[in-house]
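look at this one:
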Amino acid sequence: MSDPRGEVRLVDARLHLLSRQVLDVDGEPAGVVDDLALAGPDGAEVEAGRDVHVDAILVGPVLATRLFGGRVPDSRLPRIAWDDVGHVGTAIELTVPSDRLDAVWVERWVRDRLIARIPGGRHDPEAGA
C-alpha cells in the first residue's frame, strides 16, 4: 500500500483489512471487507514465496452465509479496486462515492423494491418532523 508520500506501507491483512467497514468518499457505509484479491508483480499470478499486493477488496452480502453456513464464491463478491482506497484506518476509506460501486447494489435493490413499498418508506422520518 502506498501512502501520500509515495512510500510503500506493509499491512497485516487479518489485522488491518479483513472485516473492516468500508466507507465511501462521503463517509457512507459501502460494505465490509470479506476477502482480498491478490496479485503478484506486474499482475502475475500469485506464487508461494513471491511478493504480492492487494489488487482489490471483496465485499458483499454475506449475512445469509453467516446465518446458515457456507461461503459465497469469490467470483460472486463485488470487487472494489485497490486504487479506489484512500486510507486504511479503523475503517477503509474510499476515494469514490458508493453510487459508482457495484458493491451496494443489494442495498439499493432492497431500498427501491421493498422498503419504498412500506408506508412512509420513501422519506427520512427525521426530515419530516
Remarks:
- The chain has one domain: 13-128.
- The chain has a mean pLDDT of 78.
